[in-house]
Specification:
By secondary structure, the protein is mainly α. It is built from 17 helices and no strands. It has two domains: 178 residues, no CATH class; 199 residues, no CATH class. The mean pLDDT is 94.
Length: 466
């Protein structure tokens, strides 16, 4: 079920009609039914996998709570992690690696036929498996107490606002809000609806209109330099508007229900270096990778070479998390290389700088981020090479970007205005400080803007495929 669809608004309206008057336990029942309906809307068969995987992690958590022997606790942790990785690996990566193996063996004369399977990738599988693993790891480390109520745990895993595209919530942040009584407020309702509206503007006005430009540009087999740059810029707008828009809608929806979801983006295109970028982009994933992969690999505690190895390993796996394709691995390697280079060149460079200096440094760093999006969006390394060649040698004919330049500039202005307002104010929701006499007409104008600029086709959120 897509946030930008009539069924979602019907589901949300139905939930709210019952939710506010219901006692706490009934609220959880309503949310669990709504969450399973939301997820099963794509394919009800996915529910069996989701509930089965959740059941294993729930039982591992209970075992960890009862077990005292370190060996048994490590075994329970290993079972949970192995199960989640096996599920993720089979559905997301089996066909990719099987096809690569068959291709490699074919090169030496060994033929393998029919090595791939007709698998449908369960939507949101990367998100809910990582969330489930974080729960068991936190129980193992003693950071939280295992919940004994299976339905509370299942709601933690399936909570519909963030189920299919995050943010990836830690059990220590979300489970207490599910277990304990909630009191939704009028202020929370209105701030939630405004946050949702901002998210819808990012998705419908920016991301979906940018998507049309991106598809056109990336279908050009031989773009010139300016067109290739325009493609990178347009996709930077599309993926940011799409993913941060989803996160805003998810956070706003949860707030209507009296539940807080973490901020997943903090103006990432105003980052001044690679380390700063990953503090601002997809924060729930970057902190997950930091806490559960980079630090256990040694983090920054070892030598320079050990730290570089830990960074590269983390980013390579982070790239592979996004999809079973080599260009995602290359994207992870690219960002890993930027992080390693930055650590070697400027290990003590400050992250928090004055606004004017940030804007200048961000303008210098953003082209590196935008080039990375070519790796992410390209359909082949050949396309990456062709667009790179065009950027370096391809001739900059101004007339070639006439169909794209104005629209990219307008969409970029919308996103930059939102982010700059947040950045300059030091507030993630500065519009809440504006008088209601201004906010209400502004909301009406934004709704009108969505109606007038909505493209013929509303695309699925990009991160649904991950």
């Amino acid at each position: 079920m897509n946030f930008v669809s009539t069924p979602f608004f019907v589901l949300l309206g139905s939930v709210l009609a019952v939710y506010y008057a219901a006692p706490h336990r009934l609220q959880n029942v309503v949310l669990l039914v709504a969450s399973l309906t939301f997820y099963g809307w794509w394919d009800y068969r996915f529910l069996a996998l989701l509930v089965s995987a959740a059941s294993i992690d729930y039982l591992c958590g209970l075992y960890l709570a009862a077990a005292k022997a370190p060996r048994r606790r490590r075994t329970a942790l290993a079972v949970s992690i192995a199960t989640n990785l096996a599920i993720l690996g089979f559905f997301k990566y089996y066909n990719f690696f099987a096809a690569e193996l068959a291709h490699a063996l074919g090169g030496i004369g060994i033929a393998l036929d029919d090595v791939t399977l007709r698998l449908v990738l369960p939507i949101g599988i990367s998100f809910y498996t990582f969330q489930a693993m974080s729960y068991v790891i936190e129980v193992y480390r003693g950071q939280i107490t295992a919940t004994r109520n299976f339905f509370d745990y299942l709601l933690f895993i399936t909570f519909f606002p963030h189920l299919v595209a995050g943010p990836i919530m830690r059990a220590s942040a979300l489970l207490p809000q599910i277990i304990n009584p909630r009191r939704p407020t009028i202020a929370g309702f209105w701030s939630g609806t405004q946050l949702m509206l901002i998210g819808f503007v990012k998705k419908v006005v920016v991301a979906d209109n940018a998507a049309t430009l991106v598809d056109t540009i990336f279908s050009d087999a031989h773009p010139n330099g300016l067109v290739a740059i325009a493609g990178a810029m347009a996709f930077a707008l599309q993926i940011y508007g799409d993913f941060s828009g989803y996160s805003d809608i998810a956070r706003g929806t949860a707030r209507l229900l009296g539940i807080d979801i973490i901020v997943n983006f903090r103006q990432p295109y105003f980052a001044i270096n690679p380390r700063d970028f990953w503090r601002r982009w997809h924060i729930s994933l970057s902190t997950w990778l930091r806490d559960y992969l980079y630090i256990p690999l040694g983090g920054s505690r070892g030598s320079a070479s050990q730290t570089a190895t830990a960074l590269m390993t983390t980013m390579l796996l982070g790239g592979l998390w996004h999809g079973a394709a080599w260009h995602f691995v290359a994207w992870g390697a690219y960002h890993g290389g930027l992080l390693v280079a930055f650590r070697l060149a400027a290990p003590n460079a400050p992250i928090d700088v004055a606004l004017g200096r940030r804007l200048l440094l961000a303008a210098l760093y953003f082209p590196l981020t935008a080039y990375g999006w070519l790796l992410f969006r390209a359909t082949s390394f050949g396309q990456v090479a062709e667009m790179t060649r065009a950027i370096v040698h391809g001739g900059y004919r101004l007339a070639s970007i006439a169909p794209f330049a104005l629209e990219i500039a307008v969409l970029a202005t919308i996103m930059a205005a939102i982010d700059l307002w947040q950045l300059a104010s030091g507030d993630e929701e500065p519009w809440l400080r504006v008088s209601a006499y201004v906010r209400v007409p502004a909301a009406i104008l934004l709704i009108e803007l969505m109606v007038e600029t909505r493209p013929a086709t509303i695309t699925d959120f990009i991160y649904f495929q991950f």
